[in-house]
Amino acid sequence: MTDSRNAAWDTYARTKPQRRTTNSRGETTWFNWTQYPDHGPGVDVLRLRPGDRALDLGCGSGGNAAHLATLGVWVAGVDLSARQLAKARERWPDMDGWELHQGDALTYLRDTSTTFDAVYSVFGATWFTDPELLLPVLHTSLRPGGVCAFSQRPPVEGCYGCQASYIPRGPDEDPAVVRRWDFEPEEWTLILRDHGYVDVSASVITPPAGSRRTGTLLVRGVRGA
Ligand SMILES: C[S@@+](CC[C@H](N)C(=O)[O-])C[C@H]1O[C@@H](n2cnc3c(N)ncnc32)[C@H](O)[C@@H]1O
User: Fold this and answer.
1) Burial (CB count within 10 angstroms: exposed 0-12, middle 13-18, buried 19+), residue 166
2) What is the mean pLDDT of residues 124-133?
3) For residue 127, how far is its CA from the centre of ligand 1 (angstroms)?
4) What's the CA-to-centroid distance between 12 and ligand 1, angstroms?
5) How many CB atoms lie within 10 A of CB 9?
6) How many of the other CB atoms lie within 10 Å of CB of 39?
7) 77 pLDDT exceeds 90?
């Protein structure tokens, strides 16, 4: 099913450049939770091993999922935007060990019978989906002990719950609007615990030294036994 969100995210895909071909360490794939290059924690957050299964909700042009696939993790990436997925396929045409699906994250989770060792989202569908709907089905799709982790911008102080997010279009057009969900780290902790996640952590990763921009909110929880 296509809705106005697909077009909005296709617009975003048009303006967003591809990820760099190598990072500062010369690696061709890497995992980045933040909006800054070469910054913040890496793939260890997910506690994955070769042969595990992971799900990327809102995988975009596929940089993080590609990295997991090169580590021997089987990964499914889901994204609303056909354009984003086309960029992923163009960049990694021969990638083994991943499947890319166009569609809505919530629908995918409701339909899948796969159990994942980790489900993650980097500035992706967990930010743009009502957590009261998403977190229960995400929990069900994790194996006991499996990790749920997602990153997004921290909230603007005082602006909590469902917020409008604007995606610029042409100079003569209003921006596209999508909905996102923002909470302080303490509130995310309570929300995840309420939905049965254990070992929950939520905190803001500070931006790179010297930056006057915002940090990155990283939320993580585990499906209990
Ligand atoms: C800001 S981009 C981030 C992409 C990628 N995770 C990254 O780190 O570059 C947000 C992505 O989430 C996708 N997205 C937003 N809502 C979604 C939903 N409900 N289901 C699937 N994908 C969604 C968009 O199409 C877009 O590609």
Assistant:
1) exposed
2) 98
3) 9
4) 10
5) 23
6) 18
7) yes
Instruction: Give dist(CA 88, CA 180) in Å, integer.
Output: 24
| Ligand 1 binding residues, C-beta < 6 A | 9, 58-60, 78-81, 84, 104-105, 122-125, 128-129
Distance 8 CA to ligand 1 centre (A): 11
Taking the centre of ligand 1 as the mean of its atom positions, its distance from the CA of residue 21, in whole angstroms, is 20
Atom from ligand 1 closest to the CA of residue 105: 20
| pLDDT > 70? residue 156 | yes
Q: How far apart are CA 178 and CA 49, in angstroms?
A: 35
167 forms beta bridges with 176
What are the structural domains of the chain?
A: 4-223 (3.40.50.150)
Atom of ligand 1 at shortest distance to CA of 19?
9
Mean pLDDT, rounded, for 42-69: 98
Give the rounded percent of residues in the chain with a pLDDT score beyond 90: 97
Examine the pLDDT at 172 and tell me if it is beyond 90: yes
CA distance 148 to 171: 39
